[in-house]
Prior knowledge:
With 204 residues, chain A is α+β, with helices and mostly antiparallel strands. Chain A has 5 helices and 9 strands.
Amino acid sequence: xxxxxxxxxxxxxxxxxxxxxxxxxxxxxxxxxxxxxxxxxxxxxxxxxxxxxxxxxxxxxxxxxxxxxxxxxxxxxxxxxxxxxxxxxxxxxxxxxxxxxxxxxxxxxxxxxxxxxxxxxxxxxxxxxxxxxxxxxxxxxxxxxxxxxxxxxxxxxxxxxxxxxxxxxxxxxxxxxxxxxxxxxxxxxxxxxxxxxxxxxxxx
Amino acid sequence: xxxxxxxxxxxxxxxxxxxxxxxxxxxxxxxxxxxxxxxxxxxxxxxxxxxxxxxxxxxxxxxxxxxxxxxxxxxxxxxxxxxxxxxxxxxxxxxxxxxxxxxxxxxxxxxxxxxxxxxxxxxxxxxxxxxxxxxxxxxxxxxxxxxxxxxxxxxxxxxxxxxxxxxxxxxxxxxxxxx
Lengths: 204, 179
């Protein structure tokens, strides 16, 4: 790495964005970190880019903690969320089961733990259907833990809090290379709206 | 113009007693020290404290002519950052008397942090592939390591880094950042 320049001069060897993110995440080796810190101590241009990375990381941290994303998460993630004081509401229906569920105004995270035999499936989709059987959402090729035997879905808490009373069915589907599908598990959630006020959305 | 001086020239002027050179050194080094502090202390307030303490120690050293190779100002400041962070972690003791003595030049205007459109960021994260979104959420929720995420996904740490880098690249592009 050549000597960079400070004072608004152009950097001759800008640090790669991925490396800056690794630096921020403390994912570099001590030697690599040392090289980066020496560069940053003389280069304001890369410092400005690191500030952008920090702002992005902070935005992602806030978003990740907001519970507003639909995302597959790990057991460790769930445990840590509970340990940090978040109010976690979790439902764990068995395959073929239909359960009653709701969400409260002060819930922070809403989770569905879907157990199924996932062995042998190279790709798994998670499909949501309305009572008429119309697919409303599909999460394609969801990540599956090595030996979990379950999928933990964090459902958007903002979406759920705005939801009307309705039933939705989740299906875990094994999808083969030709697009053929096999149902691994089907789970029906009968959601009752308990938060006062009108729902934020309705189903067509 | 002090702005145009090299670090070595600024250092030499401080040793010769030029107070304006001290202000220039603080203006130049404070944002860099603050970034180091944000990275290692994970707190804006602690990073601001670090800026003050490192600048104090640096001014003292430069006034006393203890930096024998003036062109090595940046390595000296980096070394001082490292020692100070260690001290902060051990004692968390403040140097308030010194702060009073040196006053306002220790708090030059901090470089503004970029702001993000949170709604746009949520849309961009929503457009990621499921695996990428999971990696991003688990990485940034509590800075889970690549090893933790790799264990969950049943893939290698290197693969987690590749997925994360690809996702970050896509997010920056979606947010309109320069490459």
